Amino acid sequence: MEFSARQIASFLNGTIEGNPEVKVNRFSKIEEGGSGSLTFLANPKYERYIYHTQASIVLVNADFIPSAPVSATLVKVPNAYASLARLMSLVEQAKPKKTGIAPTACIAASATLGEDCYVGEMACIGLHTVIGKGCLIYPHACIGDRVTIGDDTIIYPHVTVYDDTIIGRRCILQAGAVIGSDGFGFAPEDDTYRKIPQMGNVVLEDEVEIGANTTVDRAVMGSTLIRRGVKLDNLIQIAHNVEIGKDTVIAAQTGIAGSTKVGERCMFGGQVGLIGHIQIADRVQIGAQSGVARSITQAGPVIGSPVLPVRDFFRSNVVFAKLPELYRTLNRLEKEVDELKKNNHEQK
Question: Which residues, 6 or more positions from 13, have their beta carbon under 8 angstroms from its beta carbon?
Fold first, then answer.
């Protein structure tokens, strides 16, 4: 598809600085831009590239003021990164969708598929499962019995959806995701462990995205709940009976233990670990590789293991870096105190 700067600015409610008729037909990184490409500048760290990029159009934030001449046409928008996402979504939606039922797909006679669904080669759909309109079920996906999937949801290859799972509309499950596997529940008995049957399910509300090879365990009783708009990255573990509030985003390799409740609009960096049975307030931001061993009751950024407010963490790090010097000083002072005590005793 080809768009002019004028069309892009109209779609994004932006303003143009430069040639409004210049056209683009692809996206590029700002440092790799070429004639006919569109790129963006949202992070100030990359500003130096805008003065040399060969891209034809650059999306920039409305408050951006160049410090040197720029050859590209600028389209100024309130949020360059979000505007890029809107444009890329527009292009993605224009691509032809897969349609039809592959001859090797295995669909139970009692399953129900809505209009305009695609089911790929070797995909499996179980008993009494209901698939909404416009869903895409890619090859080798396995969907269990009594599953409900809302309209326009995409299930990529090798996704496994266990029995009784409920998935909302416009969700995306990336390749290899596992939804509804048994939670890690075992009761100690004598010198062994007795498995606790996991008799609940998983509920993914509308517009949830689950990353590749991420696992969401079914509840012991009730439901593991992933609320509307949650975005989970690749390689995340969500344990049984966890609840994640709407519009929360979580980066790769994070693990959340059982029965923990995460609030709305939280942001977790990569490799964050949360113990079970705690609560995280709305709008909490947890830095990468943090360990959370207690509830967090106030919004705001935390980091570390155990987590601290960000300012306290950096102050503590300054002290930590000085520990060897402080230790040497303490030893010296102890020796001086001992010497003073000895001299005082001798004088007596």
Answer: 77
- CA dist list (Å): 120 to 49, 155, 156: 43, 10, 10
DSSP 16-67: EES-TT-EE-EE--GGG--TTEEEEE-SGGGHHHHTT---SEEEEETT---S
Mean pLDDT of 214-230: 98
Q: How confident is the model at residue 336 (pLDDT cuts 50, 70, 90)?
A: confident
Residue of 76, 55, 57 whose CA lies nearest to 65: 76
> Containing H/E element for 106?
strand 106-107
For residue 138, the 8-state DSSP code is: -
Read off the pLDDT of residues 58-84 as tens digits, 9 standing for 90 and up. 999 999 999 999 999 999 999 999 999
Alpha carbon distance 71, 17 (integer Å): 10
Largest CA distance in the chain: 103
| Phi, psi angle pair for 264, to nearest 5° | -85, 150
Cα distance between residue 173 and residue 213, in whole Å: 10
Q: Tokens 């499962």 sit at which residue?
A: 129
The Cα 113–Cα 106 span in angstroms is 13
Please count the other Cβ atoms lying within 10 Å of the Cβ belonging to residue 305: 14
CB-based contacts of 281, cutoff 8 Å, min separation 6: 263, 296, 297, 298, 299
Q: Give the Cα separation of 125 and 131 in Å (integer).
A: 9
Catalytic pick from 52, 140, 158, 240?
A: 240
Task: For residue 158, indicate whether it is catalytic.
Answer: no
Q: Compute the distance between CA of residue 62 and CA of residue 48 in angstroms, rounded to an integer.
A: 18
Output the CA–CA distances (angstroms, integers) from residue 115 to 104, 127, 136, 152, 208, in the order listed.
Answer: 19, 19, 11, 10, 22
